[in-house]
Amino acid sequence: MVEISRRGLLLGSSALGLAPWLGGCELIEGGPSRPGLYGLSDTLTLATQRFLLRDQPLAREFPADAISKVFPTINTTDPDNPDYRRSKAQGFSDWRLPVSGLVERPTAFSLTELKAMPARTQVTLHSCEQGWSAIGGWTGVPLSHVLASCGLKPEARFIVIRSVDGWWDSYDLFDALHPQTILAYGMNGGDLPVAHGAPVRLRVERQLGYKSLKYLASIEATDRVSGLSQGRGSMVSELGFSWYAGI
Amino acid sequence: MRPAEPFRHPLWVRLTHWIGAGAFMTLAVSGFAILLALPRLFWGETGSNDSPAWIVLPLPVNLEQTGWGRNLHFISAWVFVLSGALYGLAALVTGHLFRRLAPDRDQLRPGSLVSEVRDHLHIRPPEPVSGGERYNALQKLAYLAVLLVLAPVMLLSGLTMSPGVTAAYPELFTLFGGRQSARTIHFLAAFGLVAFLLVHLWQVAANRPLRLLRGMITGRPGGKAEGA
Known about the structure:
Helices cover 26% and strands 23% of the residues of chain A. By secondary structure, chain A is of the alpha+beta class. A five-stranded mixed beta sheet of chain A has the order 2-1-10-5-6. In chain A, a hairpin with a 5-residue loop joins strand 1 and strand 2. Chain A is globular and about 45 Å long. By secondary structure, chain B is mostly helical.
C-alpha cells in the first residue's frame, strides 16, 4: 500500500519535473523520504543548511559557569524496561553498546571501555523543539572515534541509533562524524543522570534536542535508511516531525 | 503639487502581495500554535517552564501542535521569504521603493504630518489625505516599517532559533542577545505585523474596499483615488 502510493506520487511528481524536490531528504542518496509539500520544504532547508555548514563549523561552546541551573527533562525520564532496570541497579556494569552493520569489527562496548577512549567535553546550548533552551556540559567519546575503532566500511552512509525506550533515529555521516557528535556518559562534571539518558546518550549539537537520543541501546552502520521501517528515517519522523532538525 | 498619474499595481506587486498575504496567515496561525507549547518569553540564552520568565502569557499550554505547527510554519516561511525576496528585488530594480514608498519631502513637513494624523483619526476618505495619486505619508511610513524593519527582524530572529544556521553564523546570537531573546523579539515583531495587518484591513474597509480589492487583484481599480 505505502509502496504503491509512494511510487504513484513519485511518478506524478516526476511528470511535473518535481521529482528531485518532492522526494524530501532523497537529496541524500538512500536517505529518508517525505512526500508532499512538507518534503519539499524539508529538502530546501536541508540543502540550504548543508551549504551553510559545508566547512563543518562547531556549534557554540560556553564556559562552565554558563551551565543552566534548570535543565528540563522530557519524554522518557526513567525507562520502564526490565533489562534497563536490572542494569541500572548494577550501576550499568553489565550494560553493553553493540556497534554493528557495515563495520569491519562489530563490537559491544562496556561503559568502562567507552570511558577509556579519548573524551571530549562540550558546554552547549540545547534547543528543544517545544521552545525551551538550556545550557549543559557534556562529556563523552566522539561517535567518529567509536566508529573508526570498529572499522567503518567505506560503503556506510548512515548511522542508525536505537534507544531502550523504543526511540530510534538515523544520521548521515555529515552529522555522525562531526567532532561535537559524542556519546555522552557525563553531564555537568558528574555521571549522566538517569533522567538525562544514563548510562550514555547521544549529543548532536547542530540540530534540535530530539535528535540527541537518550538511553542508547545500539548503533548500526548502514548504506541506506530508505528501506527502514516507513522510510522516514526516524521514529519521530513517522509522527510528522522533520528528520533533519537543524530547522 | 505633483501631477496625478495613473495608479496601478503592477503584476509583480499583486502576485507577491497575495502570496505574501497567504503565507503570512499560515505563519501567524502556526506561529501562535508553536507559542502554545511554551507561552512564556525570556531574555538571554536560556529559558524553560521551570526558570523565571520575563512574561508569562495568559494562554493555555498545548504540546499537541508542535509537529504540524512547525511543518506549516517552515513551508510558509520559505514561501514568504522567497516571494518577499522577489518583491524586494523588483522594488529596488524598478525604483518602486523610492517612487511609491519613500515619503516625498512635502509629506514630511510637521504641518502635513499633523493634518494627516488628524485626518486618520477622523477616518476621512483618502482623496483629501493623499492629495492625489500617491500614498499618504503615514501609509508610506507604515509600509517601510514593515518592509525594512519588521520583516527583516522576523527573518533574522527566526534564523537565530535554528541550531544549524547559528552554527554557521553565531553572530546572530550576538545581534539579538541570545536564543531566547531572539524568540521573544520574534514574537514581539509578530505582534507588530499583526497590528499592521489589522490597521491595513481597517483602512481598506474604511476606504472603498471593493475598489481597492479589485485594484490589488486585477491592477485596474476603475477609478483614480488610492487608499490603503
